[in-house]
Amino acid sequence: MDDTESTTTSADENTGNLCDNPTRDTLAEGLLGLLKPTVDQLDDRVRATRISQLELKQQIDSLNEELLKVRESLNNHPDLDPYVKKLITCKHKVTVVLNILQASQDRLNQIRRMVEKDKPKVKVISEPLPEPEQGTSGISDKGSIN
Asked: Does one domain contain both 67 and 38?
């Protein structure tokens, strides 16, 4: 083999393989059709959960501030420290859940972008390629190599 000859195959040589499998195309379209509504629904639910988590965090913060004010206003200083510690612990847990939800939503958005990016490929795969011109393929009508 000559050193100047390339051993790699071009994309043009392999594009014929993409149209040969209508089952794969049908499966790809079916999977995209199945996954997109589920991802959209999951994304909506994650968004709603994140909003409710933020609202809960704000309510816990305001309740924490009110408890601190009540404790300061009382002369006999009731023992509110355990409750304040519980609120701080709850606030920490809400923050952790919020971070997990945000990471999940980021992953879902990445999946959505990948699905949207693959849609044009599925359309290209389903369209037939033009027939190669005779004499340029390197194989004669009888199957022998020119």
From this structure: yes
**Residue 142 placed within a domain:** no
Distances (CA, A) of 21 to 71, 118, 144: 73, 17, 26
Question: 49 is in which domain, residue-wise?
Answer: 23-77
Kindly report the pTM of this predicted structure.
0.36
Q: What confidence tens digit (pLDDT) does each residue in 50-98 have? A: 999 999 999 999 999 998 888 888 766 667 789 899 999 999 999 999 9
CB distance 108 to 124 below 8 Å:
no
Tokens, residue 56: 């809960």
In a domain, 135, yes or no: no
Contact 46, 105 (CB under 8 A): yes
Judge contact between 25 and 127, C-beta under 8 A. Answer: no
Cα angle, residue 49 at apex, residues 107 and 32 outer, rounded to 5°: 40
